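Standup notes
- DV: blocked on the single-chain target, sequence here:
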Amino acid sequence: MDSQLQQLIARHKDKPGGDLVSLLNDIQDSYGHLPGDALSQVASALNIPLSQVYGTSSFYTFLSTRPQGRNVIRICKGIPCDLKARHEVVQALEAGLGIRP
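- DV (later): unblocked, structure below
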């Protein structure tokens, strides 16, 4: 386990419940994503099942187990967003940035 990951785990380990979401968010901030070996080490250090760590990391949309770009654009796909002209927002982003979802 590298020292940076050890420090992050140590900082969160003393908090109630290990503060798993905050720990995963800090790891992602440091590494750009949540590497699989880091998830295993978190599970071991917090003495919780790896399935719980992975389940938490895959449940929250702001966490990613794959490397992401420097800037991430998220568009709501819910019915309320459709009623508020989500498609027009997507079209404007496509035209302005020259990218597609």
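- Follow-up: Residues 34 and 65 are 4 Å apart (CA to CA).
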